[in-house]
Amino acid sequence: MITLADIVIIGTTSLATSALAYLAMRRAPSATTAAVNSTETCAVFLFDGEVLIDTNQEGEVFLTSFGVANRNWTTVYQVLSLRFPTMPIHQPDTPVLLPMILESQDAGSTSRLYIEQAGERIRLRLKETPIAPRSVTDLYRQRGWEGQLSRLRNAVNNAPYPIWQTTTNGRILWANTAYQNLMEACDQNITQDAQGVHYPNLFQLPGRGCLQRDRYRACVALAPGQETLWYEINAVRSELHTMHYATDINAIVQSEKTQREFVQTLTKTFAQLSIGLAVFDRKRELTLFNPALTDLTGLAPAFLASKPSLRSLFDALRDAQMMPEPRDYQSWHENLDALTDAALDGRYTETWNLPTGQMYRISGRPHPDGAIVFLFEDISAEMSLNRRFRADMQLNQSVLDQYTHPIAVFSANGTLHLKNAAYDAQWPMPDDIRDGAIQIDQRPEQITDLMHNISRWQKHDANGIDWHALTAQVAEIGPEVLSGCHVTLDDGTPRSIWVRKLPDGATLICFGINGSHAQLVKSAQRQAIGETASCSD
């Protein structure tokens, strides 16, 4: 029989049990609540020496997303060191340094990397703290980003030219495969200290500029005894970092070097010329000139070395009175483009009569790569000599024209070289040539040929002398004076033909009146010899 005391004991025990159960329920959250509140994920990597021998599911996802193929400490380091710069480049040699807890350098992230000793092996634990639980949409979006990231990573790492990233103070944070291969070629290695991993700076880079984008050239010397490589580096700056893209320009640098050497060779050659040279590039800037240009124009070498434009050079020549003053300089100045076009076609040639009495010949010629070259030549002495020569010729011709007997001089090849007015009257040229219908340089050769003239004389011969014998006498190298022969022309005029040999194989032929030949021939011979000498000079 249950007594009142038993009932009290049973009730007290039940109440105490219920109270303890209630307190336990308040203090211990449910498994579901704990899973929702736990946002920490962990990727684990287990290394045996340098080889990655095992990883969990999170670690596998991590390696796959970053495209890590060769699974060892070095490849994992290349990925993690971007976020954990102080991660050792090689495994720690002694357990004394372990465990190591490294904080990520990501902005707004609380990720940590634990490096721990696991028996004789090394274990890495990467603990990430996402901002919020991810939905299915976020997961799909992340997979898309991961694919895009993989493509971009392959594009950068497989690029044939060096690419690297630096901090604002110039410290290299990351470098692609081409940069690392260049490091090996230069016998440079990655180093590490308490501040983290350090890539060697292969290029001497200028200080950080104010522009967001910058371009400059830099060279890197390979191992001793090997060549020097030249690169054009494009720097793209952001708020915290700078990306550098290097392009191989060895061919361009070598081409420029060859061009400079060629220009130096040309300069040395042009320095010996008396003709002034001015070479303008496709931009019409003076790129090359020789000392003769300064001598002929009087322009200062400093002005020419400043690469003046074509217009500036002609303006300077006008100011120095080293070119004729155009009637309308403004119009002439505007027509410089036409002058340039003519020079490109090789058609530009002008003769400048300067106020100083000098005479310059200016000509334009095309040059490679759209350039043009102007030649300045002092022809004052040449023109003076030509004037004197023409004056002497006119004087000698006037003297010959004073003789009333026909006189002609033929050169060694049988060309009519000189004749006087009496010869023209006795043996006139055809009407079209005499009237100027046919220019001198267009006349048929037989018009001034000795044999042709002899045939003309024969047509006007009334008594029929032996012209073939005379022709043979003229053609042969015989005595200096050939015997004269008498001929009566068809108009009844009696003539005696006298032939004399002159220097250089020339032949003098005189048509005189019977009895007056001796004095006539001697005088004409002296005059013809002087004329021939003048022509030879």
UniProtKB/TrEMBL annotation:
UniProt keywords, alphabetically: Transferase
In alphabetical order, the GO MF annotations are: protein histidine kinase activity
State which Enzyme Commission number(s) the record gives: 2.7.13.3
User: What SUPFAM superfamilies does the record point to?
Assistant: PYP-like sensor domain (PAS domain)
Q: Which residues cross the membrane?
A: none
Lineage, top-rank taxon, reads Bacteria
Which InterPro entries does UniProt cross-reference here? Answer: PAS, PAS-like_dom_sf
The cross-references to Gene3D superfamilies, in alphabetical order and at most eight, read: PAS domain (3.30.450.20)
What sequence ranges are listed for the domain PAS? 150-220, 264-331
Record's protein name: Sensor protein DivL
